[in-house]
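Worked Example 4.2. Consider the chain below.
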Amino acid sequence: MKKIITISREFCSGGRTIGTLVAKELGYDFYDKEIIDLTAEQSGLSKEFISKNEQTLSSGWLYSLLLGSSYSTPTSLSAPTASNHGMLPLADQVFNAQRKVIIDLAKKGPCVIVGRCADYILKHSGEVDQHDVLNVFVFAPLEDKVKRAIEENKLNPATAEKEVKQIDKRRSNHYNTFTERTWGNRSHYDILINSSLLGLEKSAEMIALIAKRT
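Applying the procedure from the previous section yields the following structure tokens:
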């Protein structure tokens, strides 16, 4: 049985809702925005700082990449400390701080973790048994995501499609930059699921069933 489930998801694909349903079905802890609070507590970074920068590309990283310098990279495996916060670009600080929190949560006990490159972080942590992890990617047709964005997120119908595409692009850029992998690439996940095919509840039931039987 899988003890840790990571859920990567397209914006408004229903991934977060699916994650909560899976956690409820399995009796697991659920972490999404809670990671922001925990990261703030453990790192000393403010919640506002983390929320603003957790999906922002590091300009310092891009600049150092172009120069070929030895500047600290986003994939650094060390968490930031009070002494090196100022040395890291903002997005790098958040990534490294959240990395530590995600690993600690996975080691703590059975859980569902949404987003934040958790699949990649746990795979390369060296501290979590990969046989315990189930990595899921949730997607949906654009028209369904736009409809959900308008109905549930109250986005302006006139600009909703553009906003959905922009947010997905931002998530993709963030993941691709910090993991050096491709967001949504099937080779990185155990399950890729179109949430519109079965609906959110049935999708969650299927993921929970797979987790129980593997």
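Residues 155 and 163 are 8 Å apart (CA to CA). Strands lie at 4-9, 29-31, 111-114, 133-139, 191-194. Compare this with Example 4.1 before moving on.
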